[in-house]
Amino acid sequence: xxxxxxxxxxxxxxxxxxxxxxxxxxxxxxxxxxxxxxxxxxxxxxxxxxxxxxxxxxxxxxxxxxxxxxxxxxxxxxxxxxxxxxxxxxxxxxxxxxxxxxxxxxxxxxxxxxxxxxxxxxxxxxxxxxxxxxxxxxxxxxxxxxxxxxxxxxxxxxxxxxxxxxxxxxxxxxxxxxxxxxxxxxxxxxxxxxxxxxxxxxxxxxxxxxxxxxxxxxxxxxxxxxxx
Amino acid sequence: xxxxxxxxxxxxxxxxxxxxxxxxxxxxxxxxxxxxxxxxxxxxxxxxxxxxxxx
Lengths: 228, 55
Hints:
Number of domains of chain A: 1
Number of strands of chain A: 0
Order of helices and strands of chain A: HHHHHHH
Radius of gyration of chain B: 20 Å
Shape of chain B: rod-shaped
CATH topology of chain A: Four Helix Bundle (Hemerythrin (Met), subunit A)
Oligomer: heterodimer
């Protein structure tokens, strides 16, 4: 079987990351579901926070990477930065959607509604629309150079929403709770949350490395077909 | 409890589906690269490494 590697340096990394991501996700889910005690006020549904918070963290991380790669692309015009940005945006869209859905599943029993036009929820929904737009821009432009340039601009401008999402709970009166600090959480809940953050970050690493490898291979095939 | 399980199952399914889709694309690209007459592709990474060696 032909090995899909963009660089010898990346060879084998996706397998190691995949193994670590699966192992930590399984352990994190078991602890989150069965080991750590339920919240005194919210009961078992609070366990959704062990997924909701890591998913939101990954969404921020993914779009930060899109932003950095977009800036690097516009400076250096190296297609590798564009490939990483595109991969990160796709993963970011997945985790932003998961953040909203998990928040909604928690909101129904705790707030009594699936959705409310709260500043945090609204700005997060806007974030999702921005990065779906980013992917749409990529699908509209056929020329790789133009596609990379246009999407880099969207990736840079769109990132402005990330700090707005984060600060929305302090800027405006919000139903959503403000960010928790390690001091305000029980140690067992904090460690469970941290374990799931690590698990999700490892999964992100695996998906991003793999997406980059696939993008490089598909680009090489495109180049070959263009030369025929 | 239904909300809790719905959230966990949905997350696992979404992650697995995304990774499966990605691995399918990787397998397809690997198969096409293997079939391709030029053998190993000169990837952008390899290209920049080769250029730096040549320089």
